[in-house]
Write a structure and sequence with these properties.
CATH superfamily of the domain at 255-386: Histidine kinase-like ATPase, C-terminal domain
Distance between the termini: 55 Å
Number of helices: 10
Strand content: 5-15%
Shape: rod-shaped
CATH architecture of the domain at 255-386: 2-Layer Sandwich
Radius of gyration: 44 Å
Structural class: alpha+beta
């Protein structure tokens, strides 16, 4: 702990003043007692003691800069000066507070040795030397122990502060990760929703482009579908962006019952789609929402890459077997890439969605030149709603 890196605060001034006054008061008290009992011999030692005590007390003002050095000097002086004992005790306290326990205990041991030297050099008439040494040892032990306690308490407070700061940083990182996951979920949702709507727009716009001589009724019908699909795409976009504002769980989500409407919309757009629903029971909301996204992505890809092909959507399952979703389309009868779209990351995102639901996803070409996408989802028995 660096005690010289910062300027002395008001609290530091108060503490230093109190320690100085305590050391000076103890020196004066000892001097008064010495006048009432036996004066030291030779007589000049009494005056020298006062000078040493004054210098020792004054040196406490630099105890923060050189705590160990000052303590060693005062310990050496305490081997023959009794009035410097107060300043020496304050130096022991400073070392215990500001230096590691190993250093503090070493300095404390030297002070005990100095006590032995003092009782030998300046024995007190009528008082056993062992008693005097034990008395001084008790006081020195109490002061050093108090300083070690304060140091430990300060380290504990700093440790708690550091732990709180780390916890705050970790909480901030967790919040950022949660935001990132939310953004990824929003991006996936926007791909699923808008990809379906925009593919409908692309189909009808492509039909108008390749058949500019179509009857006026067909053109009007296609324009109506384009307008309605564009309006619905805007509505879907508003709902998806609403995730950023609405609390979790408040945004309306598709369910298994909406799969039939999804297939109907694709049929209105000119696709030949058949739906076979052979589910044995009410499909849970979570599984139904994933099923909807699977069918939505599969129909979107079929419109993009196999325009004009027949599409079969099959949903089978039960609580005991799980739910199987299969979307298969035949060989396309329109030119590849007629709508100008390029393959995206829809299947990768769909595989991640299915994996998060605990299911499996398989897809690939068929022997007849078409494409099949198959997914299996677990059917929780207690998952009635999310």
């Amino acid at each position: 702990m660096d005690i010289t890196a910062k300027r002395r605060s008001r609290r530091d001034w108060i503490v230093d003043t109190c320690l100085f006054l305590s050391a000076a008061g103890l020196a004066l008290l000892t001097s008064g007692e010495r006048l009432l009992i036996t004066m030291p011999q030779p007589a000049w030692l009494f005056g020298l003691d006062h000078i040493i005590a004054a210098l020792g007390c004054a040196s406490l003002w630099v105890r923060r800069r050189w705590p160990v050095e000052l303590a060693l000097v005062l310990i050496a002086l305490s081997t023959f000066s009794e009035f410097v004992a107060g300043a020496m005790l304050m130096a022991l306290f400073t070392v215990a507070v500001h230096r590691p326990p190993r250093v503090s205990l070493l300095v404390f041991a030297l002070s005990l040795v100095a006590g032995v030297v003092f009782v030998i050099v300046r024995p007190e008439p009528g008082v056993p030397a062992l008693f005097m040494w034990l008395f001084g040892t008790t006081i020195q032990s109490a002061v050093t122990g108090w300083g070690l306690f304060i140091r430990h308490r300060r380290e504990l407070v700093l440790s708690l502060r550091d732990r709180a700061a780390r916890a705050e940083v970790e909480a901030h990182l967790r919040a950022e990760q949660a935001q990132l996951r939310t953004r990824e979920a929003i991006a996936r949702e926007m791909h699923d929703v808008l990809g379906h709507r925009l593919s409908l727009l692309s189909v009808h716009a492509g039909a108008l482009q390749y058949r500019p001589d179509a009857p006026a009724e067909d053109i009007a019908r296609a324009a109506k579908v384009i307008r309605e699909s564009a309006h619905q795409a805007l509505q879907d976009l508003r709902e998806v962006i609403g995730v950023l504002r609405a609390p979790v769980g408040e945004l309306p989500q598709p369910t298994f019952a909406d799969v039939q409407q999804l297939v109907a919309e694709s049929g209105q757009a000119g696709m030949r789609v058949d739906l076979h629903d052979e589910t044995g029971g009410a499909v849970p909301d979570g599984v139904g929402r994933t099923t909807y996204r699977i069918v939505q992505e599969a129909l979107t890809n079929a419109r993009r890459h196999a325009a004009g092909a027949d599409v079969l959507v099959s949903v089978t399952g039960s609580p005991a077997e799980g739910l199987t979703v299969e979307v298969a389309n035949g060989e396309r009868d329109a030119p590849p890439g007629h709508d100008g779209t390029r393959p995206g990351q829809g299947l990768a995102g769909l595989a991640e969605r299915v994996a998060l639901a605990g299911g499996r996803l398989d897809h690939g070409p068929t022997a007849s030149g078409g494409w099949r996408l198959t997914a299996w989802l677990p059917w929780p028995h207690d998952d009635h709603a999310e």
